[in-house]
Fold this protein.
Amino acid sequence: MPADRDSALVELFRSKCRMNVKEAEDKEPMEPGTIYFAPPDYHVLIENGNRLSLSNDEPVHFSRPSIDVLFESAAAADENVVLGIVLSGGSEDGSQGLRAIYESGGGAWVQDPMEAEAKLMPRAALVACPSAFKLNLSEMQSRLKEFAA
């Protein structure tokens, strides 16, 4: 199980965000307005009933936590309306999960690879999910603010 103390990433985001920020806990219900981070070395999944689940199954794309694992579980949790966002990164993780979200009726956004520091992840996401919106970070910020309003 994850340690009881929060990671440095959680603390950093908590100090910068107005929303509640926390590390995900096994079987905890998701709360609106909360940003969840995966504990180190754990996959996070969304179960039916909007509960988070932790897994230490094998890495996916050499990653644990894996974005694909999270996104695919979110797409399968039928009561969720999901928006998947893939940003800069150096692997293909997230591309298949983004496609699963889109195919289940959710939204799919990808950072414009030309703007990304590491282009592999957004490029792979656009290949796997060509219908995804390709947006720069300021466009994403504006659209996210619309959701929050």
Summary: The chain has five helices and seven strands. The helical segments are 8-16, 67-76, 95-103, 120-128, 137-148. The first helix runs from residue 8 to 16. The longest strand covers residues 43-47.
